[in-house]
Fold this protein.
Amino acid sequence: MSSVTGRAVQVPAVGGAFEVVQREFPDPGPGHVRIRVQACGVCHSDSVTKFGLFPGIAYPRVPGHEVAGVLDAVGADVPVFKVGQRVGLGWHGGHCNYCPPCRRGDFVLCENQQISGISFDGGYADYVIAPANALALIPADLADVDAAPLMCAGVTTYNSLRHSGAKPGDLVAILGIGGLGHLAVQFAAKSGYRTIAIARGEDKAPLAKQLGAHSYIDSTTHDFAAELQKLGGAAVILSTLTNADSLTAAVGGLGPNGKLVVLGVPDKPFEANAIALIMGNRSIAGWASGTGMDSEDTLNFSALSGVKPMIETYPLDRAAEAFDRMMSGKARFRVVLTTGN
């Protein structure tokens, strides 16, 4: 092994403009690997690095936690992975194995968890050095540009649905058809749920059906909670929205023992009717993304069932433009950087 030189797109300081720099990527240490990046998704959570929204971020820092690439070098004490394998790296950037959550096997809640592109430099680069226990193997028939967004948006929606308690045939409603929602609709439909897509505007109905939704509700012209109750109430409502009022309304659409799963961070705190929760044994839960193995399950299911993100691609050198496109909310629906490696 030997160190390599390549491009990195870094944030020099909180709120600073992206800089394309040449950087040396050293050999990985014990328990770590070096990935030659092929594609990296541009996620809204990259704004955490750009704008310093988490405490303690060391700058300059390279964002990016939706990485697809090839193992370029493998450090000591890495028994599973080998040079040349295609791997993905997501939000979950490794776990310690020793804290109480890790000792219980709940690695995604590790008290010492690292976050790719926040705790260490991420995928807006030609190479990434990362803990090996954060990786997912990418199946051969899944393209890098399709695999990259599945490492965050994909695993978050797929993993939350499969742990939601919903059974095949149950009514599952997806709130929002965007970067997360367009994947959630596909995963729900492919998993055998009776899938209802809910969004603003009748113009989104054809897209919802194209993605696999069995029905569509326009929330600008219908009380979506009342419409769900006409169908017997939802076993699960998966919210990808950032609108707090919609979350408040969603509780009314749950059936007995129904669960509202919150993935999108609302713009303000939201209220819930306690009587509706108590009288129907209803619940509200959040969901963290998933570990490398959860991501690997997501990738394999996607390859098997034909789930794919809708993407717009930009070359690495245009990362600033790609980030602005993502933040504008106009992308359909995930933005992906390609390195040309």
